[in-house]
Specification:
Helices cover 51% and strands 8% of the residues. It contains 16 helices and seven strands.
């Protein structure tokens, strides 16, 4: 701002900032409770995150009850009385609901114990003792069959595992003759393969020979080995399932703490606040906003700018951060940039007191638009309760009304003003990354580059807009009519991409001339 802000005016700014701080604290409490409630008309969304009209009404009830002095437990109890315990995203830990809390940990511990027990049994059975005595008859048969292509007459043919072991023995002899193995390695490997082959012959003979009834309860080593592998595999699967279930349920049952948080969050989905490895990664937008407000009140504008930028990086349309940035830019003498920031704040929250005050004062003290200044300050006056703040605003409004006729005014710009509306029930199409584009082309041009474009990030409908020379695409081009106006909502915020089904619409009264007011564009 060009004029110096007086002590009373600065006090009013701080008071409005403190009011915004208190409002933000209330909104934080509303969101914390709404994050624990299930939207009754949505699929697995919390009341805090759902765009449905019912969720908006439920958030309003939470706000009203907090303002009435109700505790969070009393508010949750109210919704449980209306919809049952199903409305709670985190079921209470009593009765049957205890299974949801205990089951993951029980499965985890059970799976771990089961895996350790069977792995220990299996490893005990699989120990290969080099000093184990071998049956001489079976060893002789192994050596004989390993040097031939089949079994001797009267003996059962070798199975696949025996043939494999015989092939290993023959290849071992070949490697030794080729000089690929030392004598010590050859003897060690041969004893190992022969021991395995003898054990396999014993298993085959035990499984085919008749045995007395008491011995029928004994299992062969092969069957025991296979069963050990199967049981060990099931134990590992059970352990992995227990770990996964425990982590997922544990993460999903915690309350969400901010708009950047999610049910599964953190390392599983990478949606933790701020991302990994960034400065301030653990700081939520609400915390950054509070830090910026405190720095602003100390007049530490550098720290305030850093904090508000951290908020706007995640949500470019955040109204409170934009309002404070507008105040700071105005103090630094950047009135145009300040007005753009304040317009973003008012497009999301039309009755934000701090933004109304800042924009009204800029328009008044810059002499740009006294009528606009009076309008914004009058809206602020209606929002304030009777008291010193309201009296100060009234005094400024009176000063605007008494401004001398010869006061220099900036020439009126040929602008077009109006609103963009979205049909009821389609608000969900405007996601957090959505950007609204308001486009002006020469009447009848049909296509080609537009004359002017207004970009509004993260719009909240209905959106008020003004389109003028500052929005002209090519420097030096005159903003003059007649013009055809249209608007479209880009979901990903990239003007170069356009997805099917994105809402768009044109003004029904096209063409228009600069200076037109109350232009209403409806998106479909």
């Amino acid at each position: 701002m060009k004029a110096r802000v007086g002590t009373a005016t600065w006090a009013l700014i701080l008071t409005l900032g403190l009011n915004v701080h208190a409002d933000q604290a209330l909104e934080d409490r509303v969101r914390a409770i709404a994050s624990e409630l299930r939207c009754v008309v949505c699929q697995n969304l919390s009341v805090a995150d759902s765009p449905a009209e019912m969720a908006v009404q439920m958030r309003g009830i939470v706000r009203e009850q907090l303002e009435a002095g109700k505790t969070p437990d009393e508010i949750r109890g109210y919704f449980v009385s209306k919809y049952g315990e199903w409305v709670l995203l985190a079921p209470p830990a009593h009765g049957f609901n205890l299974t949801v809390w205990i089951l993951p940990f029980a499965v985890l511990l059970g799976g771990l114990g089961f895996a350790l027990w069977y792995l220990r049994r299996w490893s005990g059975r699989r120990r290969d003792d080099p000093d184990e005595p071998l049956d001489p008859e079976l060893l002789e048969r192994v050596r004989a069959e390993a040097g031939e292509t089949g079994a001797k007459p009267g003996q059962p043919p070798p199975d696949e595992e025996q043939l494999r072991l015989y092939q290993d023995l023959r290849e071992l002899d070949f490697d030794r003759e080729a000089g690929k193995l030392s004598e010590a390695d050859y003897q060690a490997l041969r004893q190992r393969y022969e021991r395995q082959a003898v054990r396999r012959l014993a298993e085959v003979r035990a499984s085919t020979a008749p045995v007395p009834e008491p011995e029928m309860t004994q299992k062969s080593d092969a069957r025991g080995s296979r069963r050990g592998w199967v049981l060990a595999a099931w134990a590992v699967v059970l352990l992995a399932g227990g770990v996964t279930l425990g982590v997922l349920l544990g993460q999903s049952l915690r309350p969400r703490t901010s708009t950047e948080d999610s049910i599964t969050g953190d390392f599983l989905t990478g949606t933790g606040p701020g991302g990994i490895g960034r400065p301030g990664a653990s700081e939520t937008p609400a915390a950054a906003l509070r830090r910026g407000q405190e720095a602003f009140q100390r007049k530490d504008f550098k720290s305030a700018i850093d904090a508000f930028r951290a908020v706007l990086d995640k949500d470019p349309g955040e109204p409170v951060a934009n309002a404070y940035m507008g105040m700071i830019l105005a103090q630094a003498g950047h009135a145009d940039a300040a007005l753009k920031a304040l317009d973003r704040a008012l497009s999301r929250t039309p009755n934000l007191p701090l933004a109304l005050w800042a924009k009204g004062m800029i328009l008044f003290q810059e002499g740009r638009d006294l009528a606009g200044a009076r309008e914004h300050l009058q809206r602020l006056e209606r929002l304030l309760p009777e008291g010193e703040q309201r009296d100060s605003v009234r005094d400024i409004i009176a000063r605007i009304g008494q401004a001398p006729a010869e006061q220099p005014k900036a020439p009126a710009e040929p602008i077009i003003e109006g609103t963009v509306e979205m049909p009821p029930g389609h608000a969900a199409k405007a996601g957090p990354r959505a950007t609204l584009y308001i486009i002006a082309r020469a009447a009848g041009a049909g296509g080609g580059p537009p004359l002017a474009v207004k970009r509004i990030a993260a719009p909240t409908f209905p959106v008020s807009f003004s389109l003028g020379p500052a929005d002209v695409m090519m420097p030096g081009m005159a903003f003059e009519g007649p013009l055809d106006l249209s608007a479209r909502l880009d979901r990903d915020g990239d003007p170069l991409t356009r997805e099917p089904g994105e809402p768009a619409g044109a003004y029904g009264g096209n063409p228009v001339k600069p200076g037109a007011r109350d232009v209403a564009i409806k998106l479909r």
